[in-house]
Amino acid sequence: MIGLDTNILVRYFAQDHPAQSAVAARFIERTLNAESPGHVSLVALDELVWVLRASFAAQRAEIVSVVTQLLAGPQFVLQEAEAVWVAIDAFEQDHADFSDALIAALDRRRGCRHTVTFDRGAARIPGVVMLT
């Protein structure tokens, strides 16, 4: 397994830098496979989603597509993949930001009764409650 930094993922999915995007695509498509996959940490995944939204104005459906490709692609292994599936589902249903959905999904997987927040948007996620 080979760890993938956020910038490799951004170049691959955004195709925003001709030289680096080509190198990232070549590496991912020719080197990574089911026997030797690329590992995507939760930090790299969350940064990727943030960069795509903030720097490239990616829409919710585009983010869902990218994360689904990472989850489904045999050349990738995502840290806490089960929680990422839950988070991307909540994100897709417009419950909140991806980061908030991921926090709630990880908390549930760890056995938390619920997640508390001051964020009204995050409180729309099932299992997240406002702290008042």
CATH secondary-structure class: Alpha Beta
> How many structural domains in the coordinates?
1
Q: Assign the structural class, choosing from mainly alpha, mainly beta, alpha/beta, alpha+beta, or little secondary structure.
A: mainly alpha
Radius of gyration: 16 Å
- Name of the CATH architecture: 3-Layer(aba) Sandwich
Describe the largest sheet: 3 strands, parallel
Enumerate the strands of the largest sheet in spatial order, edge to edge or round the barrel. Answer: 1-2-3
CATH fold title: Rossmann fold
Order of helices and strands: EHHEHHEHHEE
| Residues in β-strands, percent | 5-15%
**Helix share, percent:** 55-70%
What is the number of beta strands? 5
- List low-pLDDT spans: none
| Count of runs of 4 or more consecutive helical residues | 6
Kindly report how far apart the N and C termini lie.
44 Å
Shape: globular
Mean pLDDT: 95
